[in-house]
Amino acid sequence: MTNIAHAERDHALLSASGAHRWLHCTPSARLEATLPDTTSESAKRGTLAHEIGELKLQKVFSGLTARKYNATLKKFKEHDLYEPVIDQHTDMYLEYVQKIVHAFPSPPYVAIERRLDLTEYVPEGFGTGDCIVIGCKQLHIIDYKNGQGVPVPAENNPQMMLYALGALRAYRMLYDIETIHMAIVQPKVWDQPSEWSIPVADLLAWGESIKPIAQKAFNGEGEYVVGSHCGFCRARNTCRARVEQLMSVEDKAPMKPPLISWDEVGDVLRRAEGLVSWYNGLKKLALAEVLKGGNVSGWKAVAGRGSREYADLDKAFEHLKANDIDEAVLYIKQPLTPAQLEKELTKNVYKELLEKPGHIISKPGAPTLAPADDPRPAFSDQIKPEDAFRDPVGS
């Protein structure tokens, strides 16, 4: 069977990856469909990582020949967006899948990049499961994520639950399945995958509960609801509901007494969360509109601050040295940080040569404010504000 490149695959209106959004904000999917789908460099690198991960699974579990594997991997590594850490991270993905497979008393069924029919629960819904493992009344759904900006936990993850429902529909006639295990391998965030399990009966009940919501979303009906799910929505910068919430402060202006309470501070922080990133995103959209000849009232495009570069770096430096400029003046020598070295050496080499011998000291991060539903534990040590924000020694 010929695999379709990840970037060329069709996408459903109600995508499983966007379920956390359209389940909360039902009209958002139809609104997004009216807007262009732009792809960032990090998203393209994620697609490349997925393809490399799939290739490695195909070699181990689907009998891909060594010749075909090596030729394809070589091609992937020649891609402009390839970086060595992708090889390490996809190895971690493969090793996790192997661990799951080898835990079965007899070889389980393994499906790689299986297209899943979700139409029983979501109108015209479909998706692609990265890896499915079935055996001993257990069904494993394993998903690889290359991003690092937003941790994606497996627990109650609607994308994974939809994939599980699709896998049940595909395989339940062939296998007796009682428990679903979901795992998200996100190496840039966690050393170990995020895992969660749910009985089949509970998953099916959840599937029934979302049917009317999915139908409403497919019809483009309902109210626009603003929340953390807005983060990756195409309409996030120009959505009227979000703009009005971000800019809505009129009910805070007449507060008495003159100083707002800490309860009110919490509400203001919640309202203002994302304001800076929204403003920058909207400004970027407006610039693009002006550059293509559009009109944004009261704004224009101007040349930004320029920069200088060498016409030929080698010739320039040779000329300077020929004129008695010491080479030490031309270069800055500074050590890479532990994080930079980990990326250069790969995580395993970094641990072996630096962490295990005790050359690295891990220091806790400074306290930072987060919403109450943030999965990280609350900072428990009592600390004085002046200590938390004191400048480092020697700065």
Automatic annotation (TrEMBL):
Residues 383-395 have a biased composition (Basic and acidic residues). Residues 361-395 are annotated as: Disordered. It holds the Pfam family DUF2800. This is DUF2800 domain-containing protein. It comes from Paenibacillus albilobatus.
